[in-house]
Amino acid sequence: MASHGFWSLGAENGGESGGQSPVTARAWCQAAAQKFTGGIGSKLCALLNVGEVEKSADGADKPEAESCNCTTKPCNCSKSNLGFSELYSTDLLPALNGDLKTMTFLQEVVDILLAYIVESFDRSTKVIDFHYPNELLQRNNWELSDEPETLDDILISCRATLKYAIKTAHPRYFNQLSTGLDMVGLAADWLTSTANTNMFTYEVAPVFVLLEYVTLKKMREIIGWEDGRGDGIFSPGGAISNMYAMLLARYKMFPEVKEKGMSSVPKLVAFTSEHSHFSIKKGAAALGIGTESVICIKADERGKLIPSDLERRIVEAKQKGYVPFFVSATAGTTVYGAFDPLIAISDICKKYNVWMHVDGAWGGSLLMSRKHRWKLNGVERANSMTWNPHKMMAVPLQCSALLVREEGLMQSCNQMQACYLFQQDKQYDLSYDTGDKALQCGRHVDIFKLWLMWRAKGTIGFEAQIDKCLELSEYLYNKIKDREGYEMVFDGKPQHTNVCFWYLPPGVRYLEDKVEKMKRLHKVAPTIKARMMEYGTTMVSYQPQGDKVNFFRMVISNPAATFEDIDFLIEEIERLGQDL
Amino acid sequence: MASHGFWSLGAENGGESGGQSPVTARAWCQAAAQKFTGGIGSKLCALLNVGEVEKSADGADKPEAESCNCTTKPCNCSKSNLGFSELYSTDLLPALNGDLKTMTFLQEVVDILLAYIVESFDRSTKVIDFHYPNELLQRNNWELSDEPETLDDILISCRATLKYAIKTAHPRYFNQLSTGLDMVGLAADWLTSTANTNMFTYEVAPVFVLLEYVTLKKMREIIGWEDGRGDGIFSPGGAISNMYAMLLARYKMFPEVKEKGMSSVPKLVAFTSEHSHFSIKKGAAALGIGTESVICIKADERGKLIPSDLERRIVEAKQKGYVPFFVSATAGTTVYGAFDPLIAISDICKKYNVWMHVDGAWGGSLLMSRKHRWKLNGVERANSMTWNPHKMMAVPLQCSALLVREEGLMQSCNQMQACYLFQQDKQYDLSYDTGDKALQCGRHVDIFKLWLMWRAKGTIGFEAQIDKCLELSEYLYNKIKDREGYEMVFDGKPQHTNVCFWYLPPGVRYLEDKVEKMKRLHKVAPTIKARMMEYGTTMVSYQPQGDKVNFFRMVISNPAATFEDIDFLIEEIERLGQDL
């Protein structure tokens, strides 16, 4: 391993990768030094050269200061003069006179983070330096012990952690619905950590509680609820937001369930499309409703719920004496990116008096785009909506909102009025103590990053970012729809940024035995994906669906991605898959 | 307001406060400049002088560079040369050549944070600059608009947010069970935000998944489970951890509940002490069990569950044909800090075949102390335990663990096997994909800050920190137990750091009419608390309990607190309450 002992930047695991030129740590350092003015170049360079040092038997591999070829002198590549090797966490604040040591230590960490950030956006670096779990366990000492480590060791641990982390900001990281790293969002998250407080009362989070109020109101206005009225909360992810919605729907219909439980109510049934997210069933299991009471409605070939099937199943359930209480329509399904027909669904919900929830965890953000928001037409008729700004709006994880049309319902559904937290004789307006409407007691501050990004971009900035991602996905669709060796999983332009396709390597493409062909094709995507990870060049997801064998699901929510990155992805799939 | 337009450091709302000398922003600036070498003094000073500027009608209040009296020259108090007023978020990465602008912007944010941190630990600053909600809404423009703001505006928003934030790191902030700010924990949280990934699969969070594995195992070893075997997860807070435990207990006894819901099982009942946390009832409401099926067991005068009452109520429930499925013992109650007798409880649970959960959200961390861990004797017999390192171990929010003795149960209880996330044909050991055992889909990375702090302190460092907090609470107890004007809510040395007491101002102390006395006493704590917040000098919680009127509940988890801070609290209560 040529880059042993260095922050890994090159092709440690695989040599040349098509379309990009892997660089050595030293070359990257030289480029960085030239790129930046002032001390930043040498700082970056220094960081790269004192990256995690793997212990070799003879200890000879430790990088020396003279190994650096910075153009900026004096070069501070050797950090031995900082003295962290003799300092411990007990030397930091609140230790007496800990101020300077603390600031220097935190600055050191920030320097590591800044270098990581700049590196993450650089296409010549790897998305991931992949190792199998057992291997990764052995590459570093991750154990916890009785004795403290020095601050120097702590900095080494930080570098090691980042060395093996996924670069989720990387322009070629497409693996999940949440990708990218927004710089204002990141700054806001750093501030949130520093403020280190809890959303449950105004008393301990005055600004954040107000910002949540302002932001939820704005989101409800965008949904189209009159004057932005209603309620809502930021919860730990879309699955929990969906669970909240189901809980509210049940309570709205049978408020006695709170005290008396499910044994006091008739058999409840919920409805959602067969393409919906697994959290609907998971929520039903947790809430004591049971997964069998979630009835899966047929979806069309594009993955959209078929309203006539919904109505048929509701009628059927009623005939059996069950009580339909909840329909979860999906705005942006996980795999196909399909938008259920909300207007037709809302008509049915109204007719049968069923709570209409819209799971817009993935697609809800399209409401920010004047060009694409029609896909959610009818959402204003919903009783509740899940909307995850941490997905399509690229807010750092986690940031998921549940919006509710009826005011006061969350409070009465969830409140327990613990007098040791929600004292009723405080000096301020108690409606700002939002904690009792939550399922949680303590609640993490997820609002500030969204609020600050919104200030920085404006609504039009989010719109531009979203429109661009959709444009990229259309570009990808147009590029591959008639390209040799590709087959689309469904016909037609994608509604969201999901592009689902098979790549058929030459060896599979012309097979006549259909069973054999499907068997071979099923293994293509996993193999290419594993190779992508080993080379570290890009990451994209795949899965089977129903009777369809493994296919790629490309999703684009990373604001760093460009047309060239889409081209790269296709080239990479072909390069890594041509022999299969 | 003399300090109008300045980062507020002084006594804007109340003049002199007993025991501390409020300083003006300028004086603090001068002190800071002398304290630090290099550019840090002038940096700090600069930050203090360009704090949020309130817009006055004539615009005359804007602070000028010349208003600073730094000893370090040249002084960079005027930041106009940085050009952020012409830059937008779109100029930052991933913008072409956005590297330098990004690093400069993030560094600027970090400078603001570093100044806030140093200020937070300074006893001469306020814990809170309190404003009523409507007033706070008007003190700044918090609205979201269509158009973007400049990066300069974003920095101003950051300063404004911190100006009105609670300084949870402040040595005199005692308001919640989670207080203080650990510098290594903070560094780790900044790194976590930068890595911006999701715990659901090894694929996207390799290091963090391994660190969770290592840390949970260590915690299980400390509980006393053989070889650290078992399972667990980090969840969004103690309430959710407790809900997980209840869910597992129900599934263990009646696995069919997952598919068929509560209508398939007999009437389940849970048991917990009348002093337990409200999340037990909240969880029962959510899970469809109902709050009435949570039977509250009597506690003794110290707040500990009475085992004989537990057994009596279990027998009673069985006689009624109900099925006892869950006992939640509390290790460290919220108000009294009481530890339920775990050994006696475990005997009863064993006898009646009921799942034993220990809610150690608050007191679980005492397991880290050789001196205090006996209070949890018997925890090793529990089936599950909630343990929140974000409380007594001062890990930044949020960090809550649920530990489970039986392996594999979480997976079978919660899994939905979504093939688009947990593909079964990946190249690595799939047991590292932990997402399907969670209630959530995406899951925030809460592990790194705990792991890094553990490395930095060692187990003995956490032990020392915890022992010190308990020593402080004993000091407080000894100080006030015989002091004139004080009455303890319960007798005897506190078991945890909770010290519950009434302060009786002279005007109340000698009242003979007992009803009138209680009526007046009930208002004392809220009034003193409101005054504390207006002066911003300290914060401590209060509440009524049962038939007891409002009393103070002092808790100490803040590693920055000292004996002098305890003295200060008592002086402050007397200063603010003497006229009542």
TrEMBL record, chains A, B:
<dbReference type="GO" id="GO:0006540">
    <property type="term" value="P:gamma-aminobutyrate shunt"/>
</dbReference>
<comment type="subunit">
    <text>Homodimer.</text>
</comment>
<dbReference type="InterPro" id="IPR015424">
    <property type="entry name" value="PyrdxlP-dep_Trfase"/>
</dbReference>
<keyword id="KW-0472">Membrane</keyword>
<dbReference type="Pfam" id="PF00282">
    <property type="entry name" value="Pyridoxal_deC"/>
</dbReference>
<dbReference type="InterPro" id="IPR021115">
    <property type="entry name" value="Pyridoxal-P_BS"/>
</dbReference>
<keyword id="KW-0449">Lipoprotein</keyword>
<keyword id="KW-0968">Cytoplasmic vesicle</keyword>
<dbReference type="GO" id="GO:0009449">
    <property type="term" value="P:gamma-aminobutyric acid biosynthetic process"/>
</dbReference>
<protein>
    <recommendedName>
        <fullName>Glutamate decarboxylase 2</fullName>
        <ecNumber>4.1.1.15</ecNumber>
    </recommendedName>
</protein>
<comment type="similarity">
    <text>Belongs to the group II decarboxylase family.</text>
</comment>
<dbReference type="GO" id="GO:0031410">
    <property type="term" value="C:cytoplasmic vesicle"/>
</dbReference>
<dbReference type="InterPro" id="IPR002129">
    <property type="entry name" value="PyrdxlP-dep_de-COase"/>
</dbReference>
<dbReference type="GO" id="GO:0004351">
    <property type="term" value="F:glutamate decarboxylase activity"/>
</dbReference>
<keyword id="KW-0530">Neurotransmitter biosynthesis</keyword>
<keyword id="KW-0564">Palmitate</keyword>
<dbReference type="InterPro" id="IPR015421">
    <property type="entry name" value="PyrdxlP-dep_Trfase_major"/>
</dbReference>
<keyword id="KW-0770">Synapse</keyword>
<dbReference type="GO" id="GO:0005829">
    <property type="term" value="C:cytosol"/>
</dbReference>
<keyword id="KW-1003">Cell membrane</keyword>
<keyword id="KW-0663">Pyridoxal phosphate</keyword>
<dbReference type="GO" id="GO:0000139">
    <property type="term" value="C:Golgi membrane"/>
</dbReference>
<keyword id="KW-0210">Decarboxylase</keyword>
<dbReference type="GO" id="GO:0042734">
    <property type="term" value="C:presynaptic membrane"/>
</dbReference>
<feature type="modified residue" description="N6-(pyridoxal phosphate)lysine">
    <location>
        <position position="391"/>
    </location>
</feature>
<keyword id="KW-0456">Lyase</keyword>
<keyword id="KW-0333">Golgi apparatus</keyword>
<comment type="function">
    <text>Catalyzes the production of GABA.</text>
</comment>
<keyword id="KW-0597">Phosphoprotein</keyword>
<keyword id="KW-0966">Cell projection</keyword>
<dbReference type="GO" id="GO:0030170">
    <property type="term" value="F:pyridoxal phosphate binding"/>
</dbReference>
<keyword id="KW-0963">Cytoplasm</keyword>
